[in-house]
Amino acid sequence: MNIKGNMHFWVSxxxxxxxxxxxxxxxxxxxxxxxxxxxxxSTTYSLICDIPGFSTQAVWSKAGKSMxxxxxxxxxxTSTPPYTFRIxxxxxxxxxxxxxxxxxxxxxxxxxIGDTSVNFKVQVDLTxxxxxxxxLVDPKDDKGGLSGxxxxxxxxxxxxGISLVLIVVLLVIRRKTKRSxxxxxKLSDNEDVNEDEKNENKHVLNHEEPNPGKRNNGYTEFQ
Length: 223
Known about the structure:
about 220 residues; alpha+beta; 5-stranded antiparallel beta sheet; 4-stranded antiparallel beta sheet; 11 strands
């Protein structure tokens, strides 16, 4: 009787345990979200799996591959960088050292014994920062096949070339203006010199011209 009674007790306990486990799985409340910037190249991006009843094993998986196994005491990492894993009293985290474009569309899964697993797809903002400022053309409108960076380089080069041409033109105009002014100054100086020479020659001639005297009855009278 005692043996049968003990067996009945353990079977009942097992049934109750399985019932509780099944209920917790159905009513599990795991949620996954991200924190930080999701722009390509971000160093602040991380995934958060909130586990209200965190008390047993929790797992991060990437595209179906286990990346870390976490307990309330810490995480056992099964992957290599660029990821780091950590825990809190009610959540597990995965931090990305650098968010690359290869991460976009990758599915991460958070699992916790007793709860329904939750999937989360990473969405990376691939729009360049300069494109957001309106400097580049939308890739959808790029019919020539050139990337935004190449177009930006062409634009900068064109502006630099135009600026250089304008500088050269201004220098040439300035040089011609200066040369013309110098020529005018030289011409004016030559005219002044010629005028001085004329005046000097006239003065000399006036001093050297003999006194014609006065004529009186066919004779010249000199004074």
